[in-house]
Each structure stands twice: as structure tokens, then as C-alpha cells.
Amino acid sequence: MDDLEETMLRIFRNLEESQQSTISHSTLQDLQSILDTNGPDFFEAFSSQIAQSITLQSLASQLASTMDSATSIKLSLMSSKVYLTLLLSPNSPVFTLFTPMAFLSLLRSIRRALKPQQRQDNANASGSRRASNEKKRKNKKRKGRRTVEADNGDCEEEGDDGEFDIKEFFYVFEKLVIVLDLIHLDRFPDSLKSLIQTVVDVSVMGYEICGSPSSYKRLTDLCARVLSKLLRAEHGDQMITAGEVLKLLTPLILAANKSQSRGFALGFVMCSMMRMGEDENEGVRKAVVNLPRYLVQKAPEKSDPRGLAVEAIMDIVKKMQLDDQIRFIEYVAKMSKGKANLRLLAIDLILTLMISLRNPFGVESESNDSSWGVHCVKALIARCSDSVAAIRSRALSNLAQLVGFMSGDERNQLSLKEALGFDEQNGNSSEGETMNDLLRKRCMDEKAMVRKAALLLTTKLTALFGGSFDGVVLKTMGMSCSDPLISIRKAAVSALSEAFRTFSDELVTKEWLHSVPRLVADNETSIQEESEKLFLELVLDRISRVGSACENGAIPRGSSSKRKSLGTEIKSVFPEGVLLLLKEICSSEVMPWVKKICVNLGKKKQLKPKIAHALQNIIKTSESLWSSHSKPIERWTAPAGAWFLLSEVSAHLSKSVDWEFLHHHWELLDKDCTGKLQSSPMDVDGTLCEDEYSLQSESVGWAGDRVFLLQTISNVSVELPPEPAADLAHNLLTRIEEFNMHPTEVNAHVKALRTLCKRKASDTEEADTLVLKWVQKVLSKASDILQKFISENSEVNKEKSFLTPPTNKSKQGKQAIANSRLLSEAVTAVYTIGSLIIVCPSANITNVTPILHAIITSGNSDPKLNKLPGTSVSVKERAISLYIQAWLTMGKVCLADGKLAKRYIPLFVQELEKSDNAALRNNLVVMMTDFCVRYTALRDYVKWRGVLFLRFLLSLVDESDKIRQLADYLFGNILKVKAPLLAYNSFVEAVFVLNDCTAHMGHNIGSKESRAENRLFSIRGNDERSRSKRMHIYISLLKQMAPEHLLATFAKLCAEILAAASDGMLKIDDVTGQSVLQDAFQILSCKEIRLPTGRGSTADVADEEEGGDNAASAKGRAITHAVRKNLIQNTIPIFIELKRLLESKNSSLVGSLMECLRNLLKDYKNEIDDMLVADKQLQKELIYDMQKYEAAKARTTANEATCSNMKQNLNSFLSPNVSRNPTRDESRTTSKVASAMADQAAEVAARSVLREVNVGGPTPPLSAVKFPKLKSCEREWCHGEPSSRRSEVLESLRRRQSYSDDEN
Fold first, then answer.
1. Is the pLDDT reported for residue 51 higher than 70?
2. Mind listing the pLDDT tens digit for each residue in 550-583?
3. Is the peptide bond before 805 cis (omega within 30 degrees of 0)?
4. d(Cα 915, Cα 909) in Å, to the nearest integer?
5. What pLDDT was estimated at residue 195?
6. CA within 13 Å, CB half, 405
7. SS3 string of 92-161?
8. Which of 313, 455, 826, 1050 has a CA-to-CA distance to 210 between 20 and 30 Å?
9. CA separation for the pair 51, 62 (Å, rounded)
10. Residues paired with 1066 in a beta bridge
11. d(Cα 712, Cα 521) in Å, to the nearest integer?
12. Which whole number is the average pLDDT over 15-28?
């Protein structure tokens, strides 16, 4: 007891000495030692008045002070440990020792120990003290032992103070858990909240001090025990406490990453709190049930954190009872109609709810009361038409995921179809907007991400359409395959291919073949490869399967087959729509892309022999089916497209084609079929074709099969035996020399004969000699036939001019037949000459060129062009087909001879200007395009300006679709690359010429002849058709310009048209001048001339695909700055001056000017203050004038609409005998009502605009106003007369009124 009393006295003495400061480390150690061994004696010492001036209250206060002000973490934790030991000691007066201030100091001590910066500062301070003590020991070696020992003791004490022991921290926290059984915090709400906050902080920052998962697990278990005890009734209202706990845990649950603290928070809510709620703890249960709604309100807006929030919410909802889940689902459905961020979160929650929760459609229950999934699907569909693009996109994507998930279960699939509004028969809804309507709109959405999501949804919905695709949706998917964005094209290809893979009907097949194969020429390599892969899978493999099924031409045998019709038997032999597939492959729009795909697949060795065998089997099977029904074999033709596809694949699979097969069908097709009907027995639907087609159309189809068969023979000619090859070559040459084939056969015969000669010759020189020999022979015969036609035609005309009366009818009939046969031979001969020149450019054409020249110049008024005596009669008038073929052949000759091409270019241009034949113009445009591709030097010779340029401009709006397409290709693909400045240099001139305007005093109108020429190429007029044609040409030219050229064109239009009109150089009283001015307004308003201003929102940026570099971005910013500067310095003053001029003349163009100005300024509405910073008054006038114009438009529109509605309402109450014509009073009353409504709307809008303008402050005084720079008026007067216009303009600027008051 003496030692105990001595220790107690020392403790009390130290406490008395340090009443105003912190307790030392040694005193705390003595206190802790006594409390651990003799706790009751300690409290008896207080009661026996050993400590005269020390009370338990003062001791608790000193401990709290030490916990708060200690500079060492260990000292602070030591004081906390002593305080908790005091509370837990036997016979401890808990209510005396526990005070809210001391408890808060304890919690601050715990939090301070967790702060990394605090621990680092203490460690650094400890290290500094140790270094200082080490230096002291070296400098004080001669001092006494007592001093050294004291120094060593101090160093040890400081070193101990600076260290942090995790065991001490766990000890304090464990003691705190036990203390909560003794202390009830219901009377101390602040202490309760602080304790909850401390526990949450410990769970967040504790992972760093623990250093290992096991230690952190021990720490979080302690935190969970503390929170669980706080949720007891003795600590206050359980619902309020649970709400406070959940509120502080929410940031952990909504953390941006999956941290350890997030796992603790979710685990505590789902395990501990929900278990309490299940144990009839109603307060805790209500708090947990409301937690998901609170998390929804606090969820972040960014994508990744929002996804984690949805995941956390769903983890909690899945643990809730069914009734609580349904109430939350109803809340989410209502939330989908709230603010934008809540709508976006709602559609993510709907998807997760549908996927995570059981039985969304109530298919597992007898009643449909639990079919909450229907409401969720409808809410999701509604968000697919949201006003925010990001929400539309997300809703479509989530709906696509939901459809893909639910389609796996047949019962859910049926319920999903009902929820989507599908009709079981046609896949459409009978009420409201159908799913097809939604897909049509969203696939054509202005935002790329929405279009992509809609295409993804279409892909997933393919299985639900029930085999009936909406035609507009298919067309939209086909159009999306040509979208500018790569991601959209990929999504469209995937959606359309999934539809084609699932359904093989005619609509889907045609759309796929017209949309996907053409992507083999796409700029993106991955899309090219995908197109080839899909064609191999969906076309070639499908044909291979069908062809293999009818191996060796096998057909069904037996009595049942005899009773079947040919059409029914064809359907059974050729399933999967193969006949339709083959027919569409050989269409003119699909054929070029199929050729390219076959070439690419052949180069990659991806074409298998089975496709060649399959096509041969299909052809042989169709022949066998035809013969089995006793049909005449001379009327049989193979399925459309079979020979074409075989001709393409045989180039890479020559050993897979049987020569006996080719020889048999060559003999069959080589017969003279004149007068015989050739019809394909297999139509698209597999039915028998009994209609008798005309001889011309059927001969073309028959000739097409011959062409493809010849191409196939050419491809496999290396494998042919010598004797059959020689016989075939002789046969081909004989047919060519007869000049009686269809033009489509000529090229095939010529190319096949050349291929046979080259492949069977021993070397290249021998092959060239052999080819040249027979080419010269055929050219000689062809020239003889042409000369004969020209001479006989001239003699016939001479005879006709002297015959009176005319000869008898029989003689005329025979002569007409002979002339028709001779004309047919001449046309074929001309076409053959062109084909021979292509395959053998070195052939001698000295005898052919004059004849062709004579034909194309016959009947020309220029005597210099008529060099032959027999060309006085115009071939164009008597034989237009020969005339067109002669031009085409001359173009081929020019492609082989550059010098000749340079000589004949003027003739081509002249004919292009004057010809009224669409077919000839088509050929001429093609030839001019080929000249630009073949001869780069000739491109400079062909001056793309003047008449030629204007001629091609009109080709952009030609009546013929083919010519328009060729002109678009010429401007968009060839001239855009080879002559990039062409559109820019000729744009303003084109505006004047197309309007036939000569009212510009500075425009070079030229001579009378040039004006007459320009008038030929004008589209004069203010009617809608003429304006639309001119705008189409303008837009086509603008699309060819680079951004800097668009900027320059904008400036030129303002300077040369708008400024010229305001200066008087362009006569606006003239009709053509008004047309030019109105065209200029429309051009400046169109979107093609605008440049991106760089002020897009985040959603807009997400639409654009990634790409580009810093240099391109810098260039774009520079151009944007230049546009803004140009708009500020030049455009607005010109518009203001021109507006006043037009108003003074009461011109109708004021409306067009204001509409143009509104379109220009709507992208710069935030910069209007900067544009007119020097003149606020001018800014107000401009906005006020624009508002007056908008109000006038609104008043007119409202007047018309109100008159119409009131008239309908009035007529609905009239009896049949009452006249339907409104009286003058009725019209006047209706007009007044409408005008008053519009005036009120305009007044509100004007006040709003002026109020926004005046927010920046009062208008500056007149002396501080800087007037904008106006265009000089010096060139307004051509005769040098003085002008008072400038003074008038400045005076008008000075007289401007003030509109600072809202009522003015």
C-alpha cells in the first residue's frame, strides 16, 4: 500500500501542477497502471480526500484537454485510453465522468489518429527531435552523468511519443464499443451524430493504417458493432438514428470506385440494418426502404459513377420485400418523367430492375397484378422520344438490351411483345405510335448516338417482328449504311444483316443486296472486310447449301412428282429464296459490287469450289425440271443471275468448272433463236411464267446468258483441250464478222476471243500478233459496212427527191426491210469497232476515223466539218441509234489516242451543249469524265469554265436521273480532287449567269453573243421550281469547297452582291437583280456555307467520332475566329445599310433579308454584345427590328390559323341551308381576335428581348458611341457625281431612338 499511496500522491501532485495544461506521458502511464490493477482503490483515494484539489470532473476535463491539444498521436490515444478505462472501471461514477465535451474530445482524438498528414507530421517531428538529441549528446560529452541520463530519457520519451501503434488504436475502439453499453446517447444528440460521423470516417480512412485486409476487416467489424448498438432504442428514436446513419453512409455507397469502404457500407445496410428491419424494428425498416429513393436523389450524373450507383441501389432493392420493391418501381416510373438527370437514371434503373428481379411480367403467377414490367417497358419506350438526345440514346440502348435478355424465355417473349405493342400478325400496334413508327423516327434522328442505338434496337427486335418488316424501317436501315459516321454504318450493316439472316422475303433481300455489298468500296477497311464476310456467309454459303442439295441435277421421282406443277416443284428444290437472291444479284445496281467482292474474295483464297459446283447443279437442275415437264428445251433459260455469278467465281475457280457442262450449254445457247420466244421458267416466287414477252426483251435476256457463258469460258480457257479451243475461237470470230449480234454480246465475244488467243499462244509476242491480225480483219469489214450504209442512204435520198409519183407499196416495203437490216448491221459494226479498239489500242484506224467523223458531223451547218461527199443527209435525223453509237465509239478511239482526243474535245463540248437526246448527253458526260481520268494533261486543255462549266452545272439538275448522278460524281469525286478551286472561283459568276442577270454595273456581261450563250444556260425565274434548281446547284458547289473557301465565298457574296446592291451597282429594281439578291440571302442562310463555331455541348461532342489532330483543331479554331471577325467587321454594317435601302423602296426582299440575318445571328446570340460592344443602341435596334419581323410573322400565322379554326367552328353549327361563306363582319371580328392574340405574344417576346439586352447596364452617351465601319460609297457613282449618301447614313445613325424602356 505504501507504493500505491506513493504513486497516487505523485499522480495527484502532477495533476495539480498541470491543471492548466496537458497531462504528461508518465502521468498517463501511472494512471493507466493503477486503473488496470487497483481501479477501486483509485476511486477510494478520491473519496478519502487524498486529492484535495482534484476532482473527478477536473480529471475528466484535463484528459479531454490532453486529447484535444496533444501534439503527439500516441499521447492523444493514451489519454483516450485512460478516459475510457476510467468509465469502464468498477465502481466508476459514469455519469460524473461522462460529459459531452469530453466525449467529443475522445472522438476528435480517434479521427486525428487516422489523418495521414497528422501522422506524417508527427513522424517528421519525431525524427527531427532524435537528430537534435543526437547532436546534443556529441556536444556535451564532458557533462555529468545525470544530464546525459536525463537527455537519454527525454529522447526515449519523445521517440515513444512520435510512434503510432495500431494496437493502441484498436484497444481504444474496442473500449468505445463496450462503453456504449453503459452510456445512453438519447440525451446527447450532438454526441450521437458525432460518433456516427467518426465511425464512418474510420471506415473510410482506416484501410491505410491497417495495412492488410484482415486488419481492415477487424476494424470494420468494430465499426459495424458501434453502429448496430447506436440503432438500439436506448440511444434515441431508431428511425431518426437510422436515417442519420444512412445519410452519412450514402457518400460511401455512391463512391466513384469500388473501394473497401463502399463494400463495408453496403454490407452493413444489407446485412445488419435489413436484419433489424425484419426483426419487427419498424423504424429501421422504414429508413432502409426509403434509402434507394435518397440514393436516387444523390446519384452522380457522370456515366461510370452513375452505373455504380445503380448497382448499389439494386443490391439494396433486391433484399427488400416484394411490396417495397413494387413501390420503388412505381417511384422509378414516375421519376422517368422528372428532371433530365433523374430521367437518365430512371432508364438505367428500369433495365436493371427488369433483369435482376424475378417475374417482371407476372408469368409465374396466376394473376397479372404483379406484372409491373409492362409499366417499366412503357416508361422506357416513352423515354425513347425524350427531348434530350443523351436520354433518347440511353433509352434505346437499354431497351435493346432488355429485348435481347427477354427473348431467351418464350413466356417473357410473348409478354414483351404485348408490352411493346406488337400485333401478333403484323408486328404493329393498333393504338398510338407503333414500334415501327418509333424506329423510323429514331433511325433518322439528328444525333448520331441516337441513330446508332436505334439500329441496335432494330437488330434485337428482329426476332419479334414475326417475319414482317416495315418497309420504311428497312429503307432507313439501308440509308444508314451510307451514314458519314463509321459507327453508324457498322450498326446499320449489323441490323440489316440480322434481318436478312432471319428472314428471306423479297423486301429484306432486295434492301440488303442494295445496301451492304456496295460497302466493299467503303473508305473504312473494317467495313469492307465485314461486307465481304457477310456476302460470303449470307449469299454464297446459302447458294452452296441449296446447290449441294440438288447434286448432279437430281429431281424428285415418283408419282407424287408428276402430280406437282412446275412452280411447286421448283419451290421444293430451291428453298431459302435462292432464285430471288440470284435474280437481285444480277441487277444493274448490285452487279458492280458483286464483281468487286468476288475479286477480293478470290484474291484472299476464300472462294471454295463448292460454290462453283453448286451453281452448275442449279443450272442443270433447272434444265432437268424443265425437261421433266415436257417443255420445249429451246424455250428454257437458266435462273436469272446463275450464269453471272458463275462467270465471276470461275475466274478464281477455273478447275472447278466442267468443260462438258460449258460445251453443252454453249451449243444450246448458240443456236439461231430468231423468232423464238425465250422465257425464264422460274420467276421470283418460283411459279411458272406463261406470259409471252416481246422478242426484243427476251433476246436481251438470252444474249445476257450468252455473255456470261462466254466470260466463263474465257476464265477456264486454260483448262480447255486444244481442239475444242480452236473450234470455239473459229466460232467466235465467225459470229463477230456477221455483225448481227446484240450489242451486249459483242464485247463478250471480242474479249473471249482475245483471251483464247493470249492463253493458247506460246508467248506474248505471238499472242499480240494473232490478236492484231484478226482485229484488223474485222475492222476492215466493219468499215466496209459503214461505207456501204452511208452511200446507199445517200442514193435513196437522191431517188426520193426526183420520184413523182412515189413507187408502189410492195417495193417500198422491201426497201424498208433492207434498209432496216443494213442499219442494224451498221450499228453493230460501229459498236464492234469500239470494242476492238479497247482490246487492241495499237490497231490501225486510219480508215475508220474519217467514217466516224462523217457520221458525227453529218448534217452540221458548218461546211468545214462536211468533208465527205456522201454526208449531206443527217444521220442524226434518219438513224439516231447509229449517231449515238458513233459518238460512243469515237470516245473510245480518243481514249486510245491522246492526240486525237485533243482535236475532238471541241466537238464533244459542242454536241453536249446542243444535244437534246438524254442518252447521247449521258454518253458524252461519261466520255468527258473518262478523259479527265485518263489524260491529266488534257484536263488543263479542257478549260473548266465558261460554256463548258455552265453546261455541266445544268447537268446537276438535268431531267435524266443518270445524268444527274454522273454530274454529281464528276463534281464530287473527280473535279473536287483535281480542281479544288473550280467551285470557289466560279461561284459568284454562276449566281449571275443562272439568273440571267446583267443589271450589275461592275459585272462583265461581254458581247451580245456571250450574253446569248449565257441565256441558254440560265434558270431564270422567281417561281419555286426555278429557285429550287438554282439552290441545288449552289449547294452542290458549296459541298466541294474547303472550309477556308467557304469563308472566302461568304465574304465575296457580301462584297459583290449585298454591298453592290447597297452601293447601287446592282440594280434592285430589275427583276433579275432581285433574283440574284434573293439567291444570295438563301445561300448565306443555308447550312452548307456555315462553319462549326466550337460551342457544341457535351452531347453534341459525343455524336462526333474521335479523330483528327491538334493541327486540325487549331485550324478549325482559326477559321471560326475568322468567321466571327468577318461577321463583326463587314456583314452586319452591310445588312443594316441594305435593310434601310430596301425599306425606303418598300421592297418585298426585306423579309428575306431579316430571315437571313436571323439565321446568321442565331448561332452568335451570346456574342451579340461583343459584336456591337461600341454601340449598344445599334444592338437594341437590330434586335428590336428582328423581333418586329418575328412578331409580324407570328401575327400572320396566328391570324390564318384562328380564321381557319373559327370558320370551322362556325360551319359546324350551320344548317345545310345556310351559306358557308363568312360575312364581312365575321371576318373582321376573327381577324381582330387573331391580331390581338399575336400582338400580345409579340409584346411579351419584345419585352423579354429588350430586358435581356439591358441587363449589361445603361446605354452609353452619344459622345462615347463608336460608329461601325461602313463600306465606302466611292464606287457607287460611275460618272463621278458627288454623293450625299454617306452623310445621310451617318445622320440616320445619329437620329436613332432609344428603346431602353420596355413599353417603347
1. no
2. 664 444 444 344 446 766 777 777 776 888 888 8
3. yes
4. 10
5. 93
6. 14
7. CCHHHHCCHHHHHHHHHHHHHHHCHHHHHHHHHHHHHHHHHHHHHHHHCCCCCHHHHHHHHHHHHHHHHH
8. 313
9. 15
10. 1000
11. 25
12. 76
